[in-house]
Amino acid sequence: MLFNFDDRNLLYRITRFDVILYLMIKRKKEYTLPLCILWGIFSSGTAIAQNYDDIRQPADSVTVQSLSERIFKIEKKNDAFNLLFDIRGGVYDTFDGETDRAKLAISYFRPRICGTIGKWSYLIRLNCLGNYDRTRDGANSLVDILMVSFRPNEHWSFDFGKKWFNYGAYEFQDDALRILEFFEYDYYVQDGGFGLTADASYHFGKQTIGFQIANASRMDLYENYPAAKGHIEKNRAPFQYTVNWIGSLFNDHLNTYWSYTLLNQAKNCFTSQVSLGTKLKFRKWEFVLDYFGASGDLDHLGIINSDAVTTGYTSIKGGSAMITDVKYNNIIGQFEFRPGQRWNILLKGGVTTSSTDNVEMFHNYRTTYEYTAAVQFFPDLTQDLRISLAYIGRHHRFTTACGLDNIDYGRLELSLIYKLKAY
User: Fold this and answer.
1) N or C terminus of the chain: which is more exposed, having fewer CB within 10 Å?
2) Higher pLDDT among residues 30 and 98, named by residue
3) Which whole-number Å values give the CA distances from 318 to 20, 227, 303, 399, 404, in the listed order?
4) Strand, coil or helix: what is 170?
5) Which value, to the nearest 10 degrees, does the dihedral of the CA atoms of residues 56, 61, 65, 70 take?
6) pLDDT higher for 97 or 276?
7) How far apart, in whole angstroms, are the C-alpha atoms of residue 292 and residue 189?
8) Residue 401 and residue 125: Cα distance in Å, rounded?
9) What is the pLDDT of residues 240-259, one digit of tens each?
10) Full DSSP string of 338-374
11) Does domain 90-107+151-417 have CATH number 3.20.20.80?
């Protein structure tokens, strides 16, 4: 048995806190689940969520054990209730020329409850770090996900609730906890990429065609664009519409996550967004190529308008100027290689361009180069646990005409990445 309290090497396998916890539970068995949760928080320290169905899993044909199964031998009878803790943290050393510093930090903590009951399933996830505000969908931003799904048969499924937008590309759709650094375009999309949605999907073979309707923005139009007041009229139905294709071809070696989204944030103001994710996958390695492209009447990401404020362009125009007719393009390549069960190597790079044709100084004015390199070690092949050493770099390059200075950023991090499955 992998984890046995009668094991002579017990002290090498668990911490002192684990021993104390075991003795407490032995006397008060009704406290098993609460104490099990406490064990997860104190003994893991940091954790990160990820999928189990790809090369990033601890080992082939291994079922990740929950704490309740591994330590307390509590057998699960069904999949109606699952409790997980998603935490990311470690040592971060930042280099940007001004605020070079190192720190210990937990940057991500999101508990989640999920399960399946017959044809219904549910997911609740909380974001326990950050500033919380109430959004247009009525949910506080503390509530990351609050959704239910219904699958009446093998071909159809329906989702409703607060969840992620079904944009294509794998960086956006991968669990955020396992993304060491979101690249620029996806960082801004991810920041507002959750809301109240209604989804319908049709499944056939290994293909899925989906449709989603959601609020076009988390906030009111004039909160997002203060300068639009008096110039742009609100839309009676400010929604966004997404169609996507999730596909698997050639015996699962070629996978797709493609989407097209139309946002209608204001009257007669539209944004078209194309997101194309293509993955080439084999047993020990995979390569992902993501493309994001957006062209819109309004600056839905806010990057160009933010730079306009920084340059003083907005002040020159009396504080009421707003950049419109914007264009964004982003391409990301990511390669992962698994030389052995205990090691994973990750290399990732991307380029993002930002432009508008309406203001000459902001025409093709900004290009961002980003990259990530990481080596990851799996100390326990029965757990979704890794130790990651990574370097992340980002370089903003601006044209002389816009008047902005180039910005360089780097970060070296050593982190513990662990998906803590409590029950």
Assistant:
1) N
2) 98
3) 66, 10, 20, 24, 20
4) helix
5) -130
6) 276
7) 10
8) 45
9) 999 999 999 999 999 999 99
10) EEETTEEEEEEEEEEEEEESSSGGGTT-EEEEEEEEE
11) no
